[in-house]
Design brief:
Elements lengths: L2 H30 L2 H46 L6 H56 L1 H24 L5 H13 L5 E5 L2 E2 L8 H9 L12 E3 L2
Parallel strand pairs: 1-3
Antiparallel strand pairs: 1-2
Helix pairs in contact: 1-4, 2-3
The structure holds zinc ion.
């Protein structure tokens, strides 16, 4: 197989690969940027933040109420220890216990409130998680056609990449460099077919001798007009 033909085949692979890759990115964007899915993700995110906050508030409320209980137990145990006999001191302790209990009641109310808020936040989070799953399933259903296309394009892309890897070893590095720079400069077409003694891409006509050299030369022959590598079958 001539070098020009190898490059022509590589170009067919690369051109198709470009189309496939562009379409795959577009499909990916369509699948990811679904507005409904994004909204469901956002709701889940804020439910998660709220739940986190509620847990923190509950932990603090639990800690504060527990500290108060410990304090109360300490004062009660000194009251019932029998070590304090002085009626004035006993009265003071009883007053202190009453004050501690009153404050504990407030703290326990706070704790209960925080517990209810945490439960509500947990339920909201679970609901948001379920909603996201449902929306996800729905969007997948709606996007079934896109996904089928995505799967088949992905297979084609794998296949093209394998073909590319098979072609590459027979092309030298400097020729590959030439091919790549021509593709960049010449709208993705580095190689042009010769059809009826003309460059099929730019349309310029070639002398019969020139067209003949494309077929017979061991070197790469370029179109005199557009500079693309010519290939003739
Ligand atoms: Zn040309």
């Amino acid at each position: 197989m001539s070098l020009a033909l190898q490059l022509y085949r590589l170009q067919q692979i690369d051109s198709r690969l470009n189309q496939v890759t562009t379409r795959l990115s577009a499909i990916q964007a369509l699948l990811e940027n679904n507005a409904e899915l994004q909204a469901a993700r956002q709701i889940l995110e804020s439910a998660r933040t709220e739940q986190h906050e509620a847990e923190k508030v509950l932990k603090t409320a639990e800690y504060t109420a527990n500290s108060q209980r410990v304090k109360l137990e300490q004062v009660e145990s000194s009251l019932y220890s029998g070590k304090i006999q002085n009626p004035k001191e006993l009265q003071d302790l009883q007053n202190e216990i009453a004050a501690l209990k009153r404050h504990l009641a407030i703290l326990e109310d706070n704790q209960l409130e925080a517990m209810l808020a945490a439960e509500a936040a947990n339920a909201k989070l679970a609901e948001a998680q379920e909603d996201l799953q449902v929306t996800h399933g729905k969007v997948i259903g709606e996007n079934a056609a896109l996904q089928t296309e995505q799967n088949s394009l992905q297979k084609e892309s794998d296949n093209l990449n394998a073909q590319r890897l098979a072609v590459l070893p027979v092309i030298s590095a400097d020729v590959l460099e030439l091919y790549d720079s021509l593709r960049q400069k010449r709208s993705g077409m580095a190689v042009s077919q010769v059809i009826e003694n003309s460059c099929d891409t730019c349309g310029s006509s070639l002398t019969p001798g020139y067209a003949q050299s494309v077929r017979t030369s061991a070197q790469l022959v370029h179109c005199p007009m557009c500079g693309r590598i010519l290939y003739s079958n």
